[in-house]
Structure formats: structure tokens, C-alpha cells
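subagent[fold] <- orchestrator: predict structure for attached chain, return C-alpha cells only, no commentary.
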Amino acid sequence: MNSNEQFFWNIYDASNEDELHRLVQSHPLLSNPANWKPYGTENNFSTFENQQSNPIAALVEKITNAIDALLTKQCLVNGINPKSVDAPKTMQEAVERFYRIKNGDFGELLPQERRSVAEDIQVIATGDNSAPNITVYDNGEGQHPDDFVSTFLSLHRGNKTSIQFVQGKYNMGSTGAVVFCGKHRYQLIASKRQDKLVKPGTRNSLGFTLVRRHPLTKTEEATFRSAWYEYFTISDQIPRFDVTELDLGLSGRKLNCGSIVKMFSYQLPRGARSDVTLDLWRELNQLLYHPALPFIVFEKRNYRSKTPDKPVLGNKTRIFLDEREKKEHPTKAFTFENKEMGMVNIEVTVFRASVEQREFIGEKPVVFTINGQAQGWLPRRFISQELGFSMLRDSMLIHVDCTNILTSFRQDLFMASRDRLKESENTEILKNKIIQILKSDDTLRDLNQKRKSQLMHESGEDRLVLEKILSNIPIDKDLLNLLRKNGDLSFLKRLGATQENETGNGKSGKRSPLESKRFPSIFRIDLKQNSEGKRVKSIPINGKGTIKFETDVQDEYLFRPDEKGELQLQILNWKPNDVSGGDGPGKPNKVEDILEVTREGPSDNLIRITFEPKNDISVGDEIELSARLTSPSGDLESIFWVKIVDPQKKEEKKPEKRVDNPALPQLIRVFEKPENPDTPSWTTYCFTGEDVVRVINSEGTGQENLVEGIAVNMDSYVIRRYISRNKLTSKQQIRQARDKYCLSAYLHTLFLYGILDKLVKSETYEVDFEITDFVRDVLKPYSAFLLSVDTNDAIMASLKDD
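subagent[fold] -> orchestrator:
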């Protein structure tokens, strides 16, 4: 072992940054300031410091670089210049060509085949439990030591700008994670070029360097406003040594070519510092929702895990292949396309209520991706307030695939750091389109209502007690506006409320669904032929038109990871209304050039395509279209015409005269293990012993947050501790204490919700949370106070009367 190899191992084997720092201070080469060079440029502080705000998002950039390195290697070893016209145009195409995976989706592979591919990229945790060392290995192209300065250690050079099949473009991704490397920002980089890619006669050595934040001297402290980042050299060269392979403790292999980046004492957030095959694994599946290639996370610290290493496939593959039984309904797919924005694919998954939110969603219920990597996300209140699905807020995952959005539109959507959305006009346009598509979807509305119906339980006895209490309590009009409508509060006689008879509209019976198959054999258009034998859909120039197609294929056919199909639209003929000839426009190449197109489904054996005319089309124009559904046994095609007709007149609807009477929110008593199986349990409401209440409100956009129910945890730790500390033993004492606790929690929740809603609507405060969450969290500590004093004489009086 030569001196440089031993030197490498001294650095690599450091258990944490403190041990490494002692080596740097004591070693004659590492402690010599002349051996440290600025990383890219001396003015590099802002480049390093102004990237990802989260250490896991920064770590994802390292993994993305590893995927890029693998795809680039495959391109080069196949004799293709990555920047040439012969190179793949997309990541999907690169994976399909070089890995021979259909559609470039590794979900097509068997589990053991996916595992083999995943081992080419590994994320390894070693060292301390509180601040582990994180090493990212890839079996990619690798770099020769002489090329480090122009590759690993460069900034803003645009090395990959003209390579279309890679994710990294900005030449900054490797720097974002450095700022999370302990106090001194130590990061080890080592790499060896793939043997097949080394120029003949070139010595193929493994090179390595150490990156850090420059330690300012006293003089520099007074001179410079910020420290810069630098890398280590020996005699102005990247240190190197010859080696055939290195045993770095990888899973299932040794390093003979490729690269590693080791980040010392990496500052993972609280909750992700333990076994990396648990919470960090979940976070990586969320942020790399559908990675081009799978990879391994490998835990090597003192955790007694049954599976020390685990493949990361991304949430999309997990949901469709491994965890499909956790969904309440098949994933719904929507596609929107126009020539200004390009194509947007939306996938909506609703999980069962029993599935923990952190398992798939975490704090990213609406995630926007490019090439499978998250670029930004929206909070849960987008689902409850903007879409109006408050019951699905904690169970719904919306994936917005922006890979095929036009660059001119996309550049105003995401920050270069790829960890948040920009506040821009284009972002609002995209959000409004998502709201328009999802908010009116019948399936999602039905799921939301079904979930609400499951939660709403109430006893007649509780209602009588509540009415008696509230008849003696002043209630202002703002609070009444929050109560659910069409009820009976006739006991509040001073308000002069009148009861309205509620009428219901019965729905017609639904058609019997076809048997869903893995591949389609039916693709029938729901459009009658006219006298000329044509199927024509008339669409107003200022409106929309939806065409339905009946099919017998599974709901997930068009976007599942394995054996997925495709729905293709093509213009066959265009008959403009202007028949005068001349220099009129020719036949458009794509449907989205003249029509905005939204695709939905398959869902319950139906595919819906909605067309909306654009400015490039006129009344009287006729377009012949082909809709083709691919199938292994032969594509299925439907041909139809779209005719643009006169604008529809907007009828002014006179507002209906209606009196909405308020009704008390239902009081729902929830038990950990109820004796009656029909009684609500903790599982139904996702309660733990810490929880006290949950507010169930109606759907709306923030203008009308009606309270429909208040669920009270009757087995919370608060009431259990109260009964124990006060040594209540008789059934009457316990019942009275539980009733007091239940009614106090109900009333305080109702009034607190009313106060907060009024403050929010006043626009006096800028609120960044949902009222239901705030009330839930406040009642946890506050409920103990409710039991400790007689806060409401009306409650006590009503209980005595009982």
C-alpha cells in the first residue's frame, strides 16, 4: 500500500467529522494552507449556501448525479457521444435503450432484477447515530483525477447542459449537500474512470480529494464577509493511487470503477437520523417519486434491523406494485395538454384511512416532478381548501408530472434548487388547472362523502343535552354561520329560526360495469352516428365538450409501471369554415395546436376526453380525429368529428330564495376499543391517546367552513389520568367525569373554531395553517384545564338534571 492509498484510508475511515478534523489539523499535508484550492471560484459562498434548505432534498441531488453518471456511462460504452443527435432524447429512452427495459420503467422487472440494477447506486450510513456519515456510491462513468477540476470541482460550467437524457443541468447539484456536513463541511470525493472509457496509454488511477469550508484566520475574519469552499491537492494535483478494487463496505460488491462521495456528520433532520431503511427511506421514496433507476439504502450502524439494506423504487412503483392493497380506490389519471403549456399528467391516489400519512405522503401531498424527481409541493390545505376534499386531506396523494411541460413555461414554475415552487403567474395557471380538473371529479367527490359518512355518528341523548346547554349560552351570528345547514335549532327561539323541509334528489341507477381486464378488448365511443354516418360532437366556440369511451381495461392501464398502454389522439382531417382559399392556415400537426385536451381515466370502464376550442379555430370548423387505445393484441381505434358551433349564451340564473337554518354539529364519541362494533374507534379517526378532538367540516374554498361534526376521544390520556388521580371508582362518578370532559371539549372546540375562523376571514392575520389542525393541537394541552375547574355552570346544571 503506497502513501497516497494509506492517506485515503485515513480520511475514509474517520468515524465522524471531529475525528477527521483532528487528522486535518495534525497531518502536515492537510494542515498546509497551500494545499487547498478554491472550489470553482473564490466567490463560491453563495453558490453553496443558497441551494436546498433541507438536507434530504440536498442528498437527493447526489443520487440524481449518480443516476446521470450511470446513464452517461451506458451511452459512452455503447460508442455514442452523449451530446450527439444519436444519444437518447429523454431519461426514459436512455433506460429503455441501455437497460433493455420496456418503456424505460424498471417496474417491468422482476424483484431480483430490480435489486441487481439498484446495487449500482448505494446510499450508506455509518458512524454516529445522531449525525451519521452518508456515502453515495455509483457505478457510473467515473472521472480521471486530471478531470476532477473540470467535473466534480467545477461550478456553472454547464457540463451536462446539452445532454438531454440527464437531470442535472446547472453544475451545482454536488454543492448543496456540503453545507449540511457538520461544522467544518467535510466531504470526501473519490473516483476511478471506467476502464473501457480511458484513453489508450493513460494510467487509470483512483483520485480523491477532501472538500471543506475554509477556516478563516484572524486576519481573514476582519477582511472577508464570508468563508469560501475549497478542496485538497498535493503539489497542485489531485492525489491518486493505482488500485484494482477497493473494499469500501458496499452492499454485495467492491468498488473497481465509479465514484463515491462521503459526507461526514451529515445533519439529517430529526426523525430521519435513525435506521435509514425506515424514515429516510420513506422520504427518498417521496422526493424521488419515480426515479429513472432504483438504488439501495444501506444501514451499517448499530441498529438491529432485519433488512440492513433496502431498495428505493419511488412511491409510484411502490404504490402500483408492492403496496396496492393500501389504496382505497384505483389511482385516477388525468392528462391535460395545450400548446402554451405542453402536457401535464396527474395521478391521484387515495389511501385507506388506516394507512399512516408518513408512509407515502408525509408533508408532500401534492408533489410536482420532472423525470420522477420532486421539484416542489403544496401543503395539505390545498386539498381541503382549494379542492374541497377535507375528508381526504390526510389520505390523498396527487402527483403532477411536469416532465413534458414546455421549457418556456416550466422555467417559471420551479426554483433552480428543485425544492420548491416559484410564486409566479405560471404556477397559478397550473394550480388553477389542477383545481378545475380534480374539484369536479365525481369519483373523488364520492370518496370524500363516503369518508365523511363513515365518521358521522351521533346519539340522540347527546343531542338533547347539547340543545339544553346551548339554549342558555349566548351565540353570535358568526358562529351560527359555521353550523351545518338545513338543520333544526328551534330551541334557539330568540333567533327566530325557521325550519325548512329538506328535499332530496334521487340519483338514477348506474350502468353495470364491464369486467376489467389487464388489456383492453373494447374501446367504444359514446357518440351516435348522424345521417351521413359520421359521429360528430358539436362544441361551442366558448365552451367545452366531453366524449366518453367505454372500455374493459383496468383503471391503471395507461400509467401503471409494467405493461402500460397508451391513448393516442391524431388529426386526420381539418375542414376550416373559410372555404375562400388563399393563404389560410394548413392542417395543424397536433390536436393541442387548436384544442385544449383533458384526458381522464380509464375509471370504472370509462375514458373521458374533454375538448376546448382555442383562438386558432373558428365557428364552422370541422376536425376529424382518431382516438387510439394501444393493446398487445392489436390497437383499438375510434374515429369521430368535432364541429365548432356558435357560442353558447350565458343564461342569468336568478338566485333561489332559500332559508338555510343552522344545525348543531354532530357530537361523536370515539373509543379506543368500543364494545359495540358499530361505535367509532380510534382506528377510524386515526386517534392516539394524545388526541382529544377532531373537527369535521364541510367542503369549500375557505369562504364557508361549516362545522358538521366534532369527534371527541373518550379514551384520551387526559380523561384517563383525571379518573386515576381523583380516584374515581363508582360508575356514576366516572360517567359524570367523562360526560363533563366530552361536552366541555365539544363546546370549547366549537367556540374556538368560530373565533379562529372569524380572525382568518378578517384578513387581519396571515395564517399558514388549517384551523382544524390548530384546534386539534390546542385542545391536547388545554383539555386538562377543562377538567380541573368548573368552566361551565350550564354543563354541570344539565348533568345534575339528568
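orchestrator: received. Logging for downstream: Residues 695 and 710 are 5 Å apart (CA to CA). Residues 459-489+664-801 form one domain.
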